[in-house]
């Protein structure tokens, strides 16, 4: 079953790549099945078994997610967007768009409120499946450490003070109505103007979403025993005035000094644990050093975690003069 999950992940990755490249031939079921070397019937059956949804439905909803961002962010004709994403007419696109998001493309372009997009499926992940790391392969890059000033901004997010780590966070969120991973990430994916979105003014991580730890004003202890709460959200400009979905919350984050602990690209399956150990060691050494700075844990301060194995993993932590 694990091998089939890996195969389905291959299809999921190919779908996003093909949609982005406008490669309709590569999106055909025949082409996707040939990529795996199986029949169309076997491929669709296994995709549904692994993902919980039919391949054709997943493909349609991912194309709509890509199309919505084009409607939201540009002025390209709606018919051209429809044809680019496999719809035969403006009418067919409008029906599908309204059925998925409750509004028409033209109405959404005028008033782009948050909607739940179909985010990319993670079909295979060694850590989620309890398989752990392949060996303990040491990384080569080491940790780059530097100070930055982060302007005032807003943080749209969900939070959980009982969780301990990314996957535990989403397992606990799944028990809260409207705060499961698909809903929250789908909503955040639709929000315009995220500071960390690809191509944005402060491009850092794909999709503009980050894990974070907020120093809790109420002093509640997280799973590690510290007065901070684990969060997932998106940074937005300080003057952002968009609609806040009822299942998310918005906080203002003051401008401040931060220290970044950054590791370069790494092999997620082979080097995850060693990369984490290296970053933890670097943060511990900073905390213990007499360098004129100290981590700032006053209420309202936020630690951001950017995770993209193909590019980096980095913690951005607020500091103050010691």
UniProtKB/TrEMBL annotation:
Gene3D superfamilies referenced in this protein's UniProt entry, alphabetically: Homeodomain-like (1.10.10.60)
Cited SUPFAM superfamilies: Homeodomain-like
GO-annotated molecular function: DNA-binding transcription factor activity; sequence-specific DNA binding
Residue span(s) of domain HTH araC/xylS-type: 9-111
Alphabetical UniProt keywords: DNA-binding, Transcription, Transcription regulation
A Pfam short name: HTH_18
Domain of life: Bacteria
Protein name in the entry: Transcriptional regulator, AraC family
Lineage: Bacteria, Bacillati, Actinomycetota, Coriobacteriia, Eggerthellales
